[in-house]
Specification:
The complex is a heterodimer of chains A (325) and B (394). By secondary structure, chain A is an alpha/beta fold. In chain A, the strands form three sheets. A seven-stranded mixed β-sheet of chain A has the order 3-2-4-5-7-6-12, with helices on both faces. In chain A, helix 9 packs across helix 10. The longest helix of chain A has 15 residues. Chain A is globular and about 60 Å long. Chain B folds into two domains: 288 residues, 3-Layer(aba) Sandwich (Rossmann fold), CATH 3.40.50; 33 residues. Chain B is built from twelve helices and seven strands. In chain B, strand 4 and strand 5 form a beta hairpin.
């Protein structure tokens, strides 16, 4: 075990994967010698050579197109999109190409070895274009997997699993936690399963569900609620697509209440999908309406960042409303 | 750390001189004249009798296939078709200059290249009837062929997306140390897509052994090339990206063949991309959903019919004493019969069983797809007559 922040854990996972398989290649804007704008790819070019870790021209659609072709050839590309806000030029490649590659060829061709890493989320004074949480767009694409870690341990284990999973994975890293989240991380190779949620804390009165950087927010809200005698079960969804309905529903059957928190805007956010599915499966167990605590339906604001965020206080208030419904 | 000076190779001027006409004269390689005779100054490629006959046969075969399938679409037997009439030399001539291990990433009008690789009439028909024998399991519209065995990447409809993918594929071939390149076909219209710029630039910067083959056939559906770009075609752009570039007569098999052969050699030797712009003409409609009389004249089409690439090449093959007209007619008749036979067979074959609807989305179907399939099957069992293609099957 070693103490690492999330960036070091990501870097360590990349080194582990590159040592393990010489077909693994890491590329994107500024990821080469410089090691990425956040330093997630530090020293990779130095260690593994320019052929396996390199800068690309500044073209997100090019990066994902290139990566999709490279994966279909049999290599194991890990493409970085510098900020999730800038992934949209690559949207066509991801939606129409990457995600459909295997299906449209009847399984003859696949780009399943591809992993796309991208930092997402707010709380860093990034304004409109360095703060967005676009996971719901990608959860709507059959063929993609979407994975989001909450801490360094999860980051390494989930990233290694994503790299080795035989499906294209969008791995979204909560950049607010890059340096803020520090924890013990095994130096050895390990994987955490995709498609599985993690019950962070057991409870009996209400289920709180979030992913990425918002997990610590609902944990904080849970602590406030506990002081008032409300027992919260805290779940980190970890995989957005496919998502672990079983773990969520068995928790809701126990607590009878569900609160979902995400940074992305409320309307058509992934909480909507979860709420619809859970009410279908757990209708007779529900004691109150499923509650969503999310970002506002505005562009991500700079000066009102604090007000925009679905923080622990908004969550705490929503817990009380839900429990006292 | 290296010191850099990005101004190092720039000369200076001391008067304002806005470059008004940056066009350089990019000539077009032509070996065969429109009448099929060899240009006096032309250097003939190293091409065998066997290869020449295979090219000729493939071009004739594709013309038969196109004619038959346009008719089949008109009869309502298939939903859609897209002919390549007039462009056979570009696709067949270039495919002939490649090796079987080279990956082909095509747009959608390159059935000539696919046929040259050995795609059978049965495989063409199974694809167009989307039946259960089809290699892509009947999941895409007619003409979206793909064959892993023939190194022919499955076609997708969005334009230009295969261009950066080809750069990536070629990069992988290079890293694996393979004696192989990737050829990427696209039209001059698709070259307006951002993916063209992204793909060529990346291939140049990352030294990818790819051949970018542009079929400049004058039209993107109804839009003529002069409404597509203001510069000197597509070739001029290659130079802008630092990509070795050649323009060829796309109706001249020998020009296409020799340029592609040279491009392959350069791509492998220098581990770099090469751009070929083949100047040709889409004698066919864009697709069976298109009617060219709305945007071009019969006279224009007639002028291009005189440059027929098949006849031009056939004349040259014949002049070499390689053509046995009787055998050739027998080949044509046999192909015609085979196409008809396979068409009739393929249209009788059922589509894939309903279970296939959730296969290949992921490596294994996740819970939600299994649940959706189970629900769908129950529904189909309840209303079997509404879903006759899949009901009552195991």
């Amino acid at each position: 075990m070693a103490k690492m922040n999330m960036l070091q854990a990501v870097n360590n996972a990349l080194i582990t994967a590159m040592n393990d398989d010489e077909k693994v290649m890491v590329f994107g804007e500024d990821v080469g010698h410089f090691g990425g704008v956040f330093r997630a790819t530090s020293n990779l070019q130095h260690t593994f050579g320019k052929g396996r870790c390199f800068n690309t021209p500044l073209t997100e659609q090019g990066i994902i197109g290139f990566a999709t072709g490279l994966a279909s050839q049999g290599s194991v590309p890990i493409a970085e999109i510098q900020f999730a806000d800038y992934i949209f030029p690559a949207f066509d490649q991801i939606v129409n190409e990457t995600a459909k590659f295997r299906y449209r060829s009847g399984g003859q061709f696949s780009c399943g070895t591809l992993t796309i890493r991208t930092p997402y989320g707010g709380g860093i004074a990034g304004g409109h274009y360095h703060s967005q949480s676009p996971e719901a767009f990608f959860a709507h694409i059959p063929g993609m997997k979407v994975v989001i870690p909450r801490n360094p341990y999860q980051a390494k284990g989930l990233l290694l699993a994503s790299i080795r999973d035989d499906n294209p994975v969008l791995f979204m890293e909560p950049k607010r936690l890059y340096r803020a989240s520090v924890g013990e991380v095994p130096e050895d190779d390990y994987e955490l399963p995709l498609g599985k949620a993690d019950v962070v804390k057991q409870g009996t009165d209400i289920t709180l569900l979030a992913w990425g950087a918002q997990v610590e927010i609902i944990e904080k809200a849970a602590a406030l609620a506990e002081e008032q005698g409300i027992s919260c079960e805290v779940i980190d969804l970890q995989s957005i697509l496919p998502w672990d309905i079983e773990t969520v529903c068995s928790s809701v059957e126990k607590t009878g209440r569900l609160l979902i928190n995400h940074e992305a805007p409320l309307t058509a956010g992934f909480a909507s999908e979860i709420a619809a599915s859970v009410q279908e499966k757990c209708f007779l167990h529900l004691e109150s309406p499923i509650c969503r605590v999310c970002g506002l339906d505005t562009p991500y604001p700079l000066s009102h960042e604090k007000e925009y965020m679905p923080d622990h206080l908004k969550t705490f208030e929503a817990i009380k409303r839900t429990v006292n419904f | 750390m290296k010191d850099r000076n990005h101004l190092a190779n720039i000369g200076l001027i001391h008067q304002v001189n806005i470059i008004e006409n940056g066009l350089i004269d990019i000539p077009m390689l032509q070996v065969l004249q429109p009448d099929g005779t060899v240009h006096a100054k032309a250097k003939l490629p190293d091409i065998t009798e066997q290869c020449s006959l295979k090219i000729l046969h493939t071009m004739q075969y594709i013309r038969l296939l196109d004619e038959r399938m346009v008719a089949a679409q008109r009869q309502g037997r298939i939903s859609f078709y897209l002919a390549c009439t007039g462009e056979e030399a570009s696709t067949v001539g270039s495919a002939a200059a490649l090796e079987p291990q080279d990956m082909i990433m095509s747009q959608y009008r390159e059935q000539g290249a696919l046929a040259y690789r050995g795609f059978t009439s049965k495989e063409f028909m199974d694809q167009m009837f989307s039946n259960q024998n089809e290699l892509n399991k009947g999941r895409q519209m007619p003409i979206h062929y793909g064959s892993k065995a023939l190194n022919f990447m499955t076609i997708s409809s969005p334009l230009g997306t295969q261009i950066p993918q080809a750069s990536g594929y070629a990069y992988g071939q290079k890293m694996a140390g393979l004696d192989a390149v990737t050829i990427c076909y696209f039209g001059e219209g698709a070259a307006s897509e951002g993916d063209f710029h992204a793909g060529l630039n990346m291939a140049a910067v990352l030294n990818c052994p790819a051949i970018f083959f542009c079929r400049n056939n004058g039209y993107a559906i109804s839009t003529p090339s002069e409404e597509q770009f203001a510069g000197d075609g597509i070739a001029s752009r290659g130079l802008g990206y630092g990509v070795r570039t050649i323009r060829v007569d796309g109706n001249d098999v020998l020009a296409v063949y020799t340029a592609t052969q040279e491009a392959r050699k350069i791509a492998l030797e220098h581990q770099c991309p090469v751009l070929i712009e083949a100047m040709t003409y889409r004698l066919a409609a864009h697709s069976t959903s298109d009617d060219p009389t709305g945007y071009r004249s019969k006279d224009e089409e007639e002028r291009w019919r005189l440059k027929d690439p098949v006849l031009r090449f056939k004349t040259w093959v014949d002049a070499n004493g390689w053509l046995d007209e009787e055998q050739n007619l027998a080949f044509i008749e046999q192909s015609r019969q085979e196409i008809l036979k396979e068409l009739k067979l393929a249209e009788q074959v059922p589509i894939c069983a309903i279970e296939q609807i959730i296969e290949d989305v992921y490596d294994t179907p996740p819970w939600h797809l299994k649940a959706q399939l189970a629900e769908l099957k129950t529904h189909i069992e309840k209303y079997p007559q509404a879903y006759p293609k899949t009901s009552g099957r195991q």
